[in-house]
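Why show two proteins at once? Because comparison is the fastest way to build intuition. When a single record is shown, students tend to memorize it. When two are placed side by side, the eye starts asking what differs. So, the first record is below.
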Amino acid sequence: MKSSLQQSEMVEFVTSYLENRTNESSTTRFTDLYFPIPNLKDGSLTLNSYQTKIDSSLYRHNKIERVLKGPTKEALSEGAINIFSVNTTLIGLTVSQQVAYINFSKEFLEKNQWDEDLTYRIKIINETLKSDNDIKKVIILVEKEVLDY
């Protein structure tokens, strides 16, 4: 049986198919992610963008998940910090007519010393989603309730 499979070249065909399918599903693209760098003198934050490779399946979702995880190595080397609570989760993300609706867990609202009023967290989400120019407006929800900002 082994020799008949080898003669039919089906093993090579199936192997080639599986390798190509794996390569297609792991396609990545570069995008801008935004991370804050604190100014220790006055306590302010500056948002810097960092080109980052993101898996293109569920692209926007993956961008936000990456931001929630905290700064990239490059951003960390420049002093960037994570101002999102470790427990903040992305519940959902939908885009309709260039408007992104993004729903976070309640931990998104947790205050911290760098961003007590959500200003920078909102800016980071907005800038990150709008960085590819295909989103014109971002509506942030927390546990399905629209965040007024």
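Second record. Ask yourself what differs from the first in the token line.
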Amino acid sequence: MKINVVRLLGIGVVAVVLVVAVTGCGEKSESPGVGERTGAALDKAAAKTAIMATNVAEKTSEAGKNTAAATKDVTGQVLEKTGDALEKGGAAAEKTGTDMQK
């Protein structure tokens, strides 16, 4: 008799599980669930992050190019002034040499 009760309970549990499973796998509701809303929010946040990262990279690249151009200009000016100073120094040395020969 105990075996029949155990079998009957086992069959009842299996039947309840099947009913719950079939009911849960029914037609989807029109409104998105919590998981779907969370996934959509994560997708939106990831897209915004990618856009912001691209903007930052573009601005950084542009700033780097501007800095390089400014450095090139300043370096040219420094070299030009150094050349002028060397010419003046050379002229002064030459004049000193000429004065020493007199």
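One difference worth noting in the second protein: The CA atoms of residues 8 and 14 lie 10 Å apart.
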